[in-house]
Design goal:
The complex is a heterodimer of chains A (about 220) and B (about 625). Chain A is an alpha/beta fold. Chain A contains 7 helices and 7 strands; from the N terminus they run βαββαβααβαβαβα. The C terminus of chain A is likely disordered. In chain B, strands 1, 2, 3, 4, 5, 6, 7, 8, 9, 10 and 11 form an 11-stranded antiparallel sheet that branches. In chain B, β8 and β9 form a beta hairpin. Classes of the chains: A alpha/beta (about 220), B alpha+beta (about 625). At the A-B interface, β2, α2 and α4 of A face α13, α19 and α22 of B. Bound molecules: guanosine-5'-triphosphate and magnesium ion. Chain A: One of its GO terms (cellular component) is cytosol. Chain A: It catalyses: GTP + H2O = GDP + phosphate + H(+).
Chain lengths: ~220, ~625
C-alpha cells in the first residue's frame, strides 16, 4: 500500500469545548497561526483547525474541532465529540459562571468520548489578572479531583497555549505506547497515517490494520 | 405477557446500546442508553423477544440535552446465555416479539442495527456504542434462519423459524439445488414467501438471481427437475400476477421516477428606482405587491432603493398605506422603541445585581457585539459608535421579546440591516420583521432548526436519492453540516453584498415557502460530485461544506435553485411530504409521515439509507415532545 506523500504518521482529533466567549476560537488561532484574533466571530456549529506537531520524533497532525459554546447549540455540538482523542475544556478565569459550568462540560466529555480520551483543563485569559474571578488553586484542585491536566493560559499573550496542546498530544502518544489507547477500537480518535478519503477518524479501526504493515 | 411467573432465558445481553427508533409506546425511551437483550421465554411456546431496558429506570431528566446525543458511554458488559429469575422491572422493558421482525439492517460501520417488520418499516433501531453489533448478529444467525439481501448486503432477511418442522422438510428438498452461494433453499423460500405481498420486488430480486444462473452460472449445475418446475411455475405466476390484477401497482412501482430536466432560469435586473416609483400610486401605496416581489425575486433590489424597499419587505412599512398613514406609523414605532429602550437603560445597579438572567443576557450581547463583522469598515476599529447601536438594538430586542432574549446568530442577522438603515429605530423594526420570519431558528429546544434539517433531508432525498443515500452511509443524513447555513441564512458564507441580495430574494417568499432550503439543495448538488468522488465521510463533508464559505456564487445558486424548484413541482411523483415543505396543497393520497416518501427508491426489503434516517430523525423529534 502506498503511503503517499504524507509527512506525518498520526492524526489526533481534538475537541475544544467550554462556555461561549471563554476564548476557544482564540486559543485555536493562537495555536495554529500564532496570532491573537481578538474579534473573530462567535462560532456557529463547529470550525476546524490543523497543525502538525512532533512528539518523540513522530510527526502528528492535530485535527482540532472548535465548537460553539452557547448552551442552546449543545444539541448539535454534542455530535462532534465522537472519536476525540483529546478534549480541551476551557473556562474564563475572569468569569466564574464559566468555571461553574465545567462539571456539565466534563459530564458531556466523559459521556461522549471514550475512557482513554485525554482531557485538558484550560483557565483562559490569565493576562487579565486584575479581573480574576477564579483562583488558580481551586481550579487546580478541581482538575486533580477529576484527573484532568490543567494550566492557566492566555490566547492573547500566547502563554501556555503551546504547552496545553502539546502536552495533550504527548499524553495521547504515551497512551498509544503503553497500549492503553487501543488504536483498533472504533472511535479512538487516533488515526495512523492520514485519512483515506471517506475514512474519518471514526473508522480508524479498519484503516489502521492496513496501514500498520506499511510502517 | 404475564412473564412474572415465567422463566426467562437471556440469550444475549449488551450494555451501552442507544435506542434511536422505537414503537410509539416506548417513545419515552428514545435516545437513551441501556441494555439490549435477546430473551427466550421457554414456557410460553419458545417466544423470543428483543428487549431493551434503560440504564437506569430513573432516566436523566435532562431530556432536552439528550435530544441529539449520538453516543454516550457506559460500562461494558456482554454476556451470552444464562437463565435468570424474572426481573420485576421486566414489565418496563421495551419488548418486541421476534416473530414480528422480518429483517434487520446493519449500518454505521456495524454500530447500528435496525429491526424491521414485514412491511419493511423500522420497528426499532439501536446504536452500539461499544464496539459493534457483530456479536448480536452472530447470535441472531444462530437462532434464526437469515439470508443476506441481494440488493443490500447490510440487510438480513429473516426466514421462518428454524425449528419449524415444515420448513426443515422443504429445506431438504431445496438442498440439492445448489444454485446459490448461500442458503439456496432459504433464498427460494424468501422469494416464494415474498411474492404475494411484494410481487415486483420479489420478482426483481429473483430475476436478478436467475440471470446469474442463466448467463453466468455454468452448465454443470444440475437442476433438480422438481425444483425447476417450482421455479418455472413461480415465474409464470409472477407474469400473470403482474400483468393482470395488480397491473397498476406494477406500473407504479416499476416506474423509476425521474425529475423533468433542469431548465435555465436566468437572473433578471434588480428592481430600479424608476420601477419602484412607477409601482407606487401618488399616495405612495403599492398596488401590485406581487409584481414588486416578482421583480425582486428575479433580480434583487438596486442599492439606491434597497433601503426603502427593505422596510416593506420586513413589515416595518405597510404596502397599502398612504404617505400620511405611514408617517403616523413611523411616529408610533419611534415612541415604542424608545419606551422599550428606556426600560433596560433605567435599570439601577441594585436591580441588575438582583437580576441574574438580565446580567447574563447583557454579557452575552456585549461579547457578541464585539465580534460581529469587525472586518467591515462599518464596524471596524475601537470605540466604533456603530457597535454601540448594535448593542442597543439587541438589548432592546431582548426587552421586546423577553422569552426569546438574545441567542447567538442574532447579531449576524442584524448587522447587514443596521449597515443599510444606518438608523437605530428603523434597523430595530426591520430586525423585528426578520426575526419574525426566522425566530424558530433560535428556539430554546432547537425544534425549528431540527425541523429544517429534516426538511432539507427530505428535499435532498426527493431530488437526489442517490446523494441522500450517500450522506446516510457516511453518517451525515442529519445534515448537521448545513447548520450554519440555515441558522443565519448564509451570512457566514457570503459577502455583505451577496448576503443582502440573497436575503431580499428570500423575503419575497417566491417561488415558494422555504426556498432557502432549495438554496441549500442547489449548493449541495454542485458539491456532491466532489463529496462522492472523494468518498468523503462525516468529518470531510463537514469540513468541505465549512470551507465553501467565500466561494459561493450566489446568483448562480439562486438561479439553479429556481430551476430545481420547477423540476420538483413538475415531477409526477411529487409527494405530500415535499408539497408540505414547499407550501403546496397536499393531495392526501399518500401519508405524510410515511418516511418512504422522502425517497422514490422503494426497493425490496433493503429500504435505502435515507428512509432509515428520516425515521431516525422523526424519532429524535418525538423524543423531544
Ligand atoms: N484578554 C483576553 N481576551 C481574550 C482571550 N481569549 C479570548 N479573548 C476574548 O474573548 C472573546 C471571546 O473569544 P472567542 O475565542 O471568540 O470565544 P469562544 O470560546 O470561541 O466563543 P464561542 O465561539 O461563542 O463559543 C473575544 O472577544 C476575545 O477577544 C485572552 O486570552 N485574553
Ligand atoms: Mg468560538
Amino acid at each position: 500500500m502506498s503511503a503517499g506523500p504524507y509527512n506525518y504518521s498520526y492524526i489526533f482529533k481534538y475537541i475544544i469545548i467550554g462556555d461561549m466567549g471563554v476564548g476557544k476560537s482564540c486559543l485555536l488561532h493562537q495555536f495554529t497561526e500564532k496570532k491573537f484574533m481578538s474579534d473573530c466571530p462567535h462560532t456557529i456549529g463547529v470550525e476546524f483547525g490543523t497543525r502538525i506537531i512532533e512528539v518523540a520524533g513522530q510527526k502528528i497532525k492535530l485535527q482540532i474541532w472548535d465548537t460553539a459554546g452557547q448552551e442552546r447549540f449543545r444539541a448539535v455540538t454534542r455530535s462532534y465529540y465522537r472519536g476525540a482523542a483529546g478534549a480541551l475544556m476551557v473556562y474564563d478565569i475572569t468569569r466564574r459562571s464559566t468555571y461553574n459550568h465545567l462539571s456539565s462540560w466534563l459530564t458531556d466529555t466523559r459521556n461522549l468520548t471514550n475512557p482513554s480520551t485525554v482531557i485538558f483543563l484550560i483557565g483562559n485569559k490569565c493576562d487579565l489578572e486584575g479581573q480574576r474571578d477564579v483562583t488558580y488553586e481551586e481550579a487546580k484542585q478541581f482538575a486533580d479531583e477529576n484527573g484532568l491536566m490543567f494550566v492557566e493560559a492566555s490566547a492573547k499573550t500566547g502563554q501556555n497555549v503551546e504547552e496545553a496542546f502539546l502536552e495533550t498530544a504527548r499524553k495521547i502518544y504515551q497512551s498509544i505506547q503503553d497500549g492503553r489507547l487501543d488504536l483498533n477500537a472504533a472511535e479512538s480518535g487516533v488515526q495512523h497515517k492520514p485519512s483515506q478519503p471517506g475514512r474519518n477518524t471514526l473508522s480508524s479501526d479498519q484503516q489502521f490494520n492496513k496501514d500498520n504493515c506499511a510502517c | 405477557m404475564e412473564d412474572n411467573q415465567e422463566e426467562v432465558l437471556e440469550i444475549f445481553t449488551q450494555d451501552g446500546v442507544l435506542i434511536t427508533t422505537a414503537p410509539a409506546t416506548y417513545i419515552h425511551y428514545l435516545n437513551n442508553v441501556g441494555t439490549l437483550l435477546i430473551v427466550e421465554y421457554p414456557n410460553s411456546n419458545l417466544t423470543r423477544c428483543i428487549e431493551w431496558k434503560p440504564l437506569d429506570l430513573t432516566i436523566d431528566s435532562d431530556v432536552q440535552d439528550q435530544e441529539w446525543t449520538v453516543v454516550s458511554t457506559v460500562e461494558r458488559r456482554r454476556t451470552y446465555s444464562g437463565s435468570l429469575p424474572v426481573d420485576v422491572n421486566r414489565s418496563k422493558h421495551l419488548k418486541i416479539n421476534m416473530n414480528d421482525i422480518k429483517s434487520f439492517r446493519v449500518s454505521h460501520k456495524n454500530q447500528k442495527l435496525t429491526f424491521r417488520d414485514g412491511k419493511g418499516d423500522n420497528v426499532c433501531s439501536f446504536i452500539f456504542q461499544h464496539g459493534n453489533c457483530d456479536g448480536l448478529i452472530a447470535v441472531l444467525k444462530g437462532i434464526l434462519k437469515t439470508i443476506v439481501s441481494r440488493r443490500d448486503k447490510h440487510v438480513y432477511c429473516i426466514l421462518d423459524d428454524i425449528k419449524n418442522p415444515e420448513r426443515q422438510q422443504l429445506d431438504k428438498s431445496f438442498a440439492e439445488l445448489n444454485l446459490f452461494q448461500e442458503q439456496s433453499s432459504a433464498y427460494v423460500w424468501k422469494f416464494v414467501k415474498n411474492f404475494p405481498n411484494r410481487p415486483y420486488e420479489a420478482t426483481m430480486e429473483a430475476f436478478s438471481k436467475i440471470t446469474d444462473i442463466v448467463y453466468r452460472g455454468p452448465e454443470h449445475r444440475l437442476m433438480d427437475s422438481e425444483v425447476h418446475n417450482i421455479l418455472h411455475r413461480s415465474l409464470e405466476a409472477i407474469e400473470n400476477n403482474t400483468t393482470t390484477h395488480s397491473h397498476d401497482e406494477y406500473e407504479l412501482i416499476a416506474h423509476v421516477p425521474r425529475l423533468p430536466a433542469l431548465k435555465e432560469y436566468p437572473r433578471g435586473r434588480p428592481l430600479s428606482f424608476e420601477q419602484w416609483k412607477a409601482l407606487q400610486d401618488s399616495e405612495g401605496q403599492v398596488e401590485d405587491v406581487e409584481a414588486v416581489k416578482l421583480v425582486i425575486f428575479r433580480g434583487g433590489i438596486s442599492s439606491n432603493v434597497r433601503k426603502e424597499v427593505w422596510k416593506y419587505l420586513l413589515d416595518y412599512y405597510r404596502w397599502k398605506c398612504s404617505h400620511a398613514e405611514q408617517q403616523n406609523l413611523i411616529k408610533q414605532r419611534n415612541e415604542e422603541y424608545f419606551i422599550m429602550k428606556l426600560q433596560w437603560r433605567s435599570m439601577t445597579k441594585i436591580q441588575e445585581d438582583n437580576f441574574t438572567d438580565y446580567r447574563e443576557r447583557k454579557s452575552l450581547i456585549e461579547k457578541d457585539v464585539n465580534r460581529t463583522d469587525r472586518t467591515l469598515d462599518y464596524f471596524a476599529g475601537d470605540n466604533n459608535p456603530n457597535l454601540q447601536v448594535l448593542y442597543d438594538i439587541l438589548m432592546t430586542y431582548a426587552m421586546y421579546n423577553f422569552d426569546l432574549g438574545y441567542v447567538q446568530g442574532m447579531s449576524d442577522l442584524l448587522s447587514p440591516i443596521l449597515y443599510l438603515m444606518n438608523n437605530e429605530v428603523e434597523a430595530f423594526w426591520c430586525f423585528v420583521g426578520f426575526m419574525n420570519k426566522v425566530s424558530s431558528n433560535f428556539d430554546m429546544d432547537q425544534a425549528g432548526m431540527k425541523e429544517q434539517l429534516q426538511h432539507l433531508h427530505t428535499l435532498t432525498a426527493f431530488y437526489d436519492p442517490e446523494f441522500a443515500n450517500y450522506l446516510y452511509k457516511h453518517d451525515s443524513a442529519n445534515m448537521f453540516f448545513c447548520f450554519r447555513w440555515l441558522l443565519v441564512w448564509f451570512k457566514r458564507e457570503l459577502s455583505q453584498q451577496d448576503v443582502m441580495r440573497l436575503w431580499e430574494v428570500l423575503w419575497t417568499d417566491l417561488p415558494c415557502q422555504n426556498f432557502h432550503l432549495l438554496i441549500c439543495v442547489a449548493i449541495l448538488d454542485t458539491e456532491k460530485n466532489i463529496l462522492m468522488e472523494n468518498n468523503y465521510g462525516f468529518t470531510e463533508i463537514l469540513k468541505h461544506i465549512n470551507d465553501l464559505s467565500g466561494n459561493i456564487d450566489i446568483s448562480t445558486v439562486i438561479s439553479k435553485a429556481e430551476g430545481m424548484y420547477n423540476q420538483i413541482v413538475d415531477a409526477e411523483h411529487l409527494t405530500d411530504a415535499v408539497r408540505l415543505i414547499i407550501g403546496l396543497p397536499i393531495l392526501g393520497n399518500t401519508s405524510i409521515v410515511d418516511s418512504k416518501e422522502a425517497s422514490p427508491d422503494i426497493s425490496d426489503l433493503t429500504t435505502n439509507g435515507d428512509t432509515d434516517e428520516v425515521s431516525y430523525e422523526n424519532a429524535l423529534t418525538h423524543s423531544f415532545l
